Amino acid sequence: MKRALITGITGQDGSYLTELLLSKGYEVHGIKRRASSLNSQRLDHLYQDPHEAHVRFTLHYGDLTDSTNLIRIIQEVQPDEIYNLGAMSHVKVSFDTPEYTADVDGVGTLRLLEAVRLLGLTKKTRIYQASTSELYGLVQEVPQRETTPFYPRSPYAVAKLYGYWITVNYREAYGMYACNGILFNHESPQRGETFVTRKITRAAARIALGLQDKLYLGNLDAKRDWGHAKDYVEAMWRMLQQETAEDYVIATGVTTTVREFVRLAFAELGIEVSFSGEGIAERGTVVACRDAEYQVPAGTVVVEVDERYFRPTEVELLIGDPTKAKHQLGWEPKYDLPALVKEMVQSDLGLFKRDAYLREGGHPIPQAYAE
Ligand code: NDP
Ligand code: GDR
């Protein structure tokens, strides 16, 4: 039985990867941070009581800023594969917490590689590093591929650039099997609530149900290559099953504006939204509401632009070329954007219908805090 250790197991990708590895018969260990409230909701459906025999899924407390903790856990688990998904992963927030982001996303990667080396596991343990299309930043070439020069545009991306190169360096210096997956944006119903896709699908559902009036967004012109997290964790696993360690771009090859994502999300609920105005004055207005279940009259302004969501330096266009992954890993995405949007909107609709029932029954409903 193969043993895997996942950092960032409580995040979006961590939950999908855990599902995948358990389904392949792995014993899965994960590192989770101590928090004042439970933070393992995404893993609840996979929980195994540690008091029972033959447990294949175990969580350990830890943090990428703590070397001794990483060394102890890796020594205990003796993993065949490590997936380093742990990160301060929000680009906008990295401008507020640049030093912490560098520590976790950059130096944290070094701590993990060095722990494997110090423990003499360089020949046993294969490592996946969660690199990112944010490395491409300011457009140098489209579509972006493995050979495209990097030009990071945020503290997050600069920290991940260090993570990328230290992974390459440990591979070359010590012969470690260590790969970078240069993953383009991937989303799902498990996506964090403050990333733009989930912010939009949550708001669309809440607006349709009469629980929210408006959605405030930043740069509507930004273009992203959005895939589904379920497809992307499959690529991570495939990268660690090859004869030699290499770096791969994982993307769909299709790019879409934030504005278009908004249109698609509302359309999934039968609400047609059209945009007018320019820059900060741009508005998204309901043209028609075709589903009798939802009462959002034509003419209602449901989207406004708010400068607070702009970034000091933006990544305007991402579109990836996954040819290498297709040829060498046999990887292809199963989801396209409409299927992704549908799944996310329907999932959020299900979540917020509970709030709508509560409100109908006269119960106060909590205001969800998701900026
Ligand atoms: P999430 O933000 O959903 O999850 C991040 C995980 O990292 C969480 O489990 C979080 O724990 C954990 N974490 C944060 N800080 C620390 C720390 N100091 N020590 C240990 N763990 C920590 O991200 P995703 O699942 O979306 O992404 C997974 C990885 O892939 C990240 O490294 C991200 O940067 C990268 N990536 C993501 C892409 C995407 O589109 N999703 C694209 C390209 C790369 P907690 O739950 O306690 O906050
Ligand atoms: P990104 O994802 O920065 O690409 O990083 P995010 O969803 O945060 O932003 C995508 C684009 O949408 C624009 N945008 C907004 N973004 C947010 N979050 N909130 C808004 O209100 C808003 N309005 C417009 C952004 O400016 C941006 O252009 C994600 C993360 O998962 C990273 O960890 C990962 O490395 C990259 O994807 C690939």
Automatic annotation (TrEMBL):
Enzyme class: lyase
Region forming the signal peptide: none
Gene3D superfamilies noted in UniProt: NAD(P)-binding Rossmann-like Domain (3.40.50.720), UDP-galactose 4-epimerase, domain 1 (3.90.25.10)
Transmembrane region(s): none
Swiss-Prot/TrEMBL keywords: Lyase, NADP
Catalysed reaction, written as an equation: GDP-alpha-D-mannose = GDP-4-dehydro-alpha-D-rhamnose + H2O
Coiled coil region boundaries: none
Catalytic activity, EC: 4.2.1.47
Ranges for domain NAD(P)-binding: 5-344
SUPFAM superfamilies given in the database record: NAD(P)-binding Rossmann-fold domains
Cofactor(s) required, per the database record: NADP(+)
InterPro entries found in the cross-reference section: GDP_Man_deHydtase, NAD(P)-bd_dom, NAD(P)-bd_dom_sf
HAMAP family: GDP_Man_dehydratase
Family listed: Belongs to the NAD(P)-dependent epimerase/dehydratase family. GDP-mannose 4,6-dehydratase subfamily.
Cited function: Catalyzes the conversion of GDP-D-mannose to GDP-4-dehydro-6-deoxy-D-mannose.
Protein name from the UniProt record: GDP-mannose 4,6-dehydratase
Gene behind the chain: gmd
